[in-house]
């Protein structure tokens, strides 16, 4: 085996160390081009989270006395903060899947004041629209302008008594120069059928249920369905979907309101407006899954 002197080995180590230091220096002091534009990482536009109910667009009515015999109104901040009382939660509560149960029975406390049994008024657990999120019931929309759409997805768990409850409405509001506040269009669940009740042009100029017509458009029984209401160009259209029953009726024109002189301001409603007032025991229950409104100028 060849032997190296101590002097030779020392020179070899010195050479290796020198080469290694040069390499490290070349890495450490590699110049950086400050004139290069920084590489920008693309950022996607924020995606608005889809919600089943935009609560700023609604308030809730339940058949418990607020004052003077009138039903209780519960506003969006109370609902979103889960601030209902135990008594109110009997009529309205959220389920594990995010839907809402809307239970009601006749208590005598209606939105227009106290009523006795058989007195011609009915109780409800129902949502009333705040147009475009404005919490003012005097601010509503007109059929003469724009396009106005309600799509509400729900099912009727059961309906005792008359077997009838209203699940959606276009309701007229007191309007200067006009008489009354007509319940212009009502969507009724009647023993599993969906019936559109709608006012037509009255002979005396006052829009009331004395001049209404009815059309049965589908049978959904106790299945989930989506009811669609639209006013466009002053005309009313309806549509309905129910996957379990293989129903898919697109928007269908039913009545020209503006063409027949209708000039009231309006708002949407949806929920459980129970058409029964013969006793205090029988009840109805609706589950609300989703409700969407759209107003286009």
UniProtKB/TrEMBL annotation:
PROSITE patterns, A to Z: PROKAR_LIPOPROTEIN
Protein known as: Alginate lyase
Keyword Lyase recorded: yes
Keyword Ligase: no
Annotated GO biological process: carbohydrate metabolic process
Organism, scientific name: Sediminitomix flava
Matches recorded under InterPro entries: Alginate_lyase_2 (IPR014895), ConA-like_dom_sf (IPR013320)
UniProt GO MF annotations: hydrolase activity, hydrolyzing O-glycosyl compounds; lyase activity
Signal peptide (residue range): 1-23
Residue ranges constituting the Alginate lyase domain according to the UniProt record: 56-295
Keywords for this protein: Lyase, Signal
């Amino acid at each position: 085996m060849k032997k190296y002197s101590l002097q030779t080995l020392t020179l070899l180590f010195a050479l290796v160390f020198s080469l290694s230091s040069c390499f490290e220096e070349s890495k450490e002091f590699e110049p950086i081009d400050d004139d290069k534009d920084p590489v920008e990482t693309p950022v996607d536009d924020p995606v608005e989270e889809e919600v089943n109910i935009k609560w700023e667009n609604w308030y809730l009515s339940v058949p418990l006395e607020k004052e003077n015999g009138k039903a209780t109104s519960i506003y969006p901040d109370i609902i979103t903060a889960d601030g209902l009382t135990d008594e109110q939660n009997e009529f309205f509560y959220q389920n594990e899947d995010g839907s809402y149960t809307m239970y009601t029975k006749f208590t005598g406390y209606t939105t227009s004041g106290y009523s006795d049994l058989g007195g011609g008024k009915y109780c409800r657990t129902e949502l009333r629209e705040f147009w475009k999120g404005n919490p003012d019931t005097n601010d509503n929309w007109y059929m003469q302008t724009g396009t106005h759409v309600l799509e509400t997805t729900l099912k009727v768990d059961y309906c005792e008594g008359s077997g009838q409850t209203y699940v959606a409405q276009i309701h007229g509001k007191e309007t200067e120069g006009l008489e009354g506040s007509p319940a212009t269009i009502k969507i009724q669940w009647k023993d599993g059928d969906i019936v559109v009740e709608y006012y037509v042009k009255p002979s005396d100029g006052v829009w009331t249920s004395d001049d209404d017509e009815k059309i049965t458009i589908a049978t959904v029984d106790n299945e989930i369905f989506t009811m669609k209401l639209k006013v466009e160009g002053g005309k009313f259209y309806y549509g309905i979907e129910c996957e379990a029953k293989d129903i898919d009726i697109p928007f269908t024109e039913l009545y020209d309101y503006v063409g027949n002189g209708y000039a009231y301001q309006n708002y949407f409603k949806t929920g459980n407006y129970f058409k029964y007032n013969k006793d205090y025991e029988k009840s109805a229950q609706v589950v609300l899954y989703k409700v969407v409104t759209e107003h286009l100028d």
